C-alpha cells in the first residue's frame, strides 16, 4: 500500500510540473522569427531608463606611485570620457587612489562596472587612450594574476619572459590571433577584447606560467583553428584530426650531488696548536734573537735556491732538442715476422763462424811445401810423356 501511495504522489507532482510548464512556456511570436539575432548586444538607449539611478554606486582602487605623474597628466581626458556617460571620477594623490561613482545624470546601470574596469586597467599601466575603449559595449577586460602561480622568483621571471617572447613577438602574435590587447606588467597580465578572445588569452597565460605548454605551441593551435573556422563544411565536424597534438617531454635534469653525512661527534674537535706551542716543541722558542734571525735567513736562502734552480731548469728546457718519436708497430703479425728474421740471422751467423773456425784449423795442418813438390813432379812427368810421343 505504501508503494502505491508513493507512486500516486509522484504522478501528482509530475502533473503539477506539466501544468506549470504549459502555463509559463507558451509559444511566443519572436521564437521562430529568423530576422532576430539573439547574440547581438544592442546599444543602450537612455530612453530605457529616463528616471536614472535610485542609489549612488562607487568603486575605488589604489595605484602604484610610479603611475602618479602619468595619471595626473591624462586625468582630464578620462574625466571627459566618463562625463559622456554621467559618471563622476576623482583622483586622490594623497591616498594614491582613484574613485568612480554614479550621478543623477547616469542612465546606463552597467556603465559603473565598466568605469570600475577602467580604473583597474589604469592602475595596471594600461595607457589611457587604450583603457577608455573599455567603456564600449563590445569590449571586455580581464586582469590575470600570475604572481601566485610560480613560487621561485627566477623561474617566474623566465616564464614571464617566455610569454612576452623575443622583441615581444609572441605577445604580438597572440594579439593578432585572439584580437585582444595584452599587456604584461609586474605580477599581472591585463587583456582587453571579446569574451572568446579573453578566454583564449587566460588559457595561454596560465598554461605558460604553470609550465604545462609553451606559448609557441598554443599559437600554432590558434592559427589552425582560425583557418578551420573559415571552412563552413567543418562547422559541424570535430577538428581533433586537424589540430596538432603536443606531448610534453621530460627533460633529464642534473641530479643534485648527495652530500655525505658526517658522523656525529658529541665532543668538539681538538683545538689547533698555537704558534708559541709549535715553537716550544721545536725548541725555537728558547733560541736567541741572533740565532732566530740566522735560521730565518737560512730558510730564505734555501727557498731562493730552490726557485732559482727551477727557473734555470725551465730556461734550459727550451734549448733541449725534441725527442724523436719512434713509430711502434702495433700489429702482432709484423712483430712475429721480425722475431723469425732475427732467429734466422743468428743461426746463419753461428754457421758462418763454425766454418771459419774449421778453415783456420785446416790451414794450420796443411804444409805448403808438399803441395809445391807434387806440382813439380807432375810437370816433369808431363814433359817426359811429350818427348816419347814425338
UniProtKB/TrEMBL annotation:
<dbReference type="GO" id="GO:1990904">
    <property type="term" value="C:ribonucleoprotein complex"/>
</dbReference>
<dbReference type="InterPro" id="IPR041174">
    <property type="entry name" value="KRR1-like_KH1"/>
</dbReference>
<keyword id="KW-0539">Nucleus</keyword>
<dbReference type="GO" id="GO:0006364">
    <property type="term" value="P:rRNA processing"/>
</dbReference>
<feature type="domain" description="KRR1 small subunit processome component second KH">
    <location>
        <begin position="139"/>
        <end position="230"/>
    </location>
</feature>
<comment type="subunit">
    <text>Component of the ribosomal small subunit (SSU) processome.</text>
</comment>
<feature type="region of interest" description="Disordered">
    <location>
        <begin position="350"/>
        <end position="369"/>
    </location>
</feature>
<dbReference type="Pfam" id="PF21800">
    <property type="entry name" value="KH_KRR1_2nd"/>
</dbReference>
<feature type="region of interest" description="Disordered">
    <location>
        <begin position="245"/>
        <end position="342"/>
    </location>
</feature>
<protein>
    <recommendedName>
        <fullName>KRR1 small subunit processome component</fullName>
    </recommendedName>
</protein>
<comment type="function">
    <text>Required for 40S ribosome biogenesis. Involved in nucleolar processing of pre-18S ribosomal RNA and ribosome assembly.</text>
</comment>
<feature type="domain" description="KRR1 small subunit processome component first KH">
    <location>
        <begin position="57"/>
        <end position="137"/>
    </location>
</feature>
<feature type="compositionally biased region" description="Basic residues">
    <location>
        <begin position="246"/>
        <end position="260"/>
    </location>
</feature>
<keyword id="KW-0694">RNA-binding</keyword>
<dbReference type="InterPro" id="IPR048548">
    <property type="entry name" value="KRR1-like_KH2"/>
</dbReference>
<dbReference type="InterPro" id="IPR036612">
    <property type="entry name" value="KH_dom_type_1_sf"/>
</dbReference>
<feature type="region of interest" description="Disordered">
    <location>
        <begin position="1"/>
        <end position="31"/>
    </location>
</feature>
<dbReference type="GO" id="GO:0005730">
    <property type="term" value="C:nucleolus"/>
</dbReference>
<dbReference type="InterPro" id="IPR048549">
    <property type="entry name" value="KRR1-like_KH2_euk"/>
</dbReference>
<dbReference type="GO" id="GO:0003723">
    <property type="term" value="F:RNA binding"/>
</dbReference>
<feature type="compositionally biased region" description="Basic and acidic residues">
    <location>
        <begin position="287"/>
        <end position="309"/>
    </location>
</feature>
<feature type="compositionally biased region" description="Basic and acidic residues">
    <location>
        <begin position="1"/>
        <end position="17"/>
    </location>
</feature>
<comment type="similarity">
    <text>Belongs to the KRR1 family.</text>
</comment>
<dbReference type="Pfam" id="PF17903">
    <property type="entry name" value="KH_KRR1_1st"/>
</dbReference>
<keyword id="KW-0690">Ribosome biogenesis</keyword>
<dbReference type="InterPro" id="IPR024166">
    <property type="entry name" value="rRNA_assembly_KRR1"/>
</dbReference>
<keyword id="KW-0698">rRNA processing</keyword>
<keyword id="KW-0687">Ribonucleoprotein</keyword>
<dbReference type="InterPro" id="IPR048550">
    <property type="entry name" value="KRR1-like_KH1_euk"/>
</dbReference>
Amino acid at each position: 500500500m505504501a508503494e502505491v501511495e508513493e507512486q500516486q504522489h509522484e504522478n501528482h507532482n509530475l502533473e503539477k510540473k506539466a501544468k506549470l510548464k504549459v502555463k509559463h512556456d507558451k509559444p511566443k511570436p519572436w521564437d521562430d522569427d529568423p530576422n532576430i539575432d539573439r547574440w547581438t548586444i544592442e546599444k543602450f538607449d537612455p530612453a530605457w531608463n529616463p528616471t536614472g539611478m535610485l542609489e549612488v554606486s562607487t568603486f575605488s582602487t589604489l595605484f602604484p606611485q610610479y603611475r602618479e605623474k602619468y595619471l595626473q597628466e591624462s586625468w582630464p581626458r578620462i574625466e571627459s570620457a566618463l562625463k559622456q556617460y554621467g559618471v563622476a571620477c576623482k583622483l586622490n594623490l594623497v591616498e594614491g587612489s582613484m574613485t568612480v561613482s554614479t550621478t543623477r545624470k547616469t542612465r546606463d546601470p552597467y556603465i559603473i562596472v565598466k568605469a570600475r574596469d577602467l580604473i583597474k586597467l589604469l592602475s595596471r599601466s594600461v595607457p589611457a587612450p587604450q583603457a577608455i575603449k573599455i567603456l564600449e559595449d563590445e569590449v571586455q577586460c580581464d586582469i590575470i594574476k600570475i604572481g601566485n602561480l610560480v613560487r621561485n622568483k627566477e623561474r617566474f621571471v623566465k616564464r614571464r619572459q617566455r610569454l612576452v617572447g623575443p622583441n615581444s613577438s609572441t605577445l604580438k602574435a597572440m594579439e593578432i590571433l585572439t584580437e585582444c590587447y595584452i599587456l604584461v606588467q609586474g605580477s599581472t597580465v591585463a587583456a582587453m577584447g571579446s569574451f572568446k578572445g579573453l578566454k583564449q588569452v587566460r588559457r595561454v597565460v596560465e598554461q605558460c606560467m604553470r609550465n604545462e605548454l609553451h606559448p609557441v605551441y598554443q599559437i600554432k593551435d590558434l592559427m589552425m583553428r582560425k583557418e578551420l573556422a573559415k571552412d563552413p563544411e567543418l562547422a559541424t565536424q570535430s577538428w581533433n584530426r586537424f589540430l596538432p597534438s603536443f606531448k610534453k617531454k621530460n627533460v633529464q635534469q642534473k641530479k643534485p650531488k648527495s652530500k655525505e653525512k658526517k658522523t656525529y661527534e658529541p665532543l668538539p674537535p681538538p683545538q689547533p696548536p698555537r704558534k708559541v706551542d709549535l715553537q716550544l716543541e721545536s725548541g725555537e722558542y728558547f733560541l736567541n734573537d741572533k740565532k732566530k734571525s740566522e735560521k730565518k735567513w737560512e730558510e730564505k736562502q734555501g727557498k731562493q735556491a730552490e726557485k732559482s734552480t727551477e727557473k734555470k731548469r725551465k730556461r734550459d728546457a727550451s734549448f733541449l732538442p725534441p725527442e724523436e718519436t719512434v713509430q711502434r708497430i702495433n700489429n702482432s703479425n709484423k712483430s712475429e715476422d721480425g722475431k723469425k728474421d732475427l732467429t734466422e740471422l743468428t743461426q746463419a751467423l753461428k754457421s758462418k763462424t763454425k766454418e771459419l773456425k774449421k778453415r783456420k784449423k785446416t790451414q794450420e795442418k796443411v804444409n805448403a811445401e808438399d803441395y809445391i813438390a807434387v806440382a813439380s813432379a807432375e810437370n816433369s812427368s808431363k814433359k817426359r810423356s811429350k818427348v816419347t810421343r814425338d
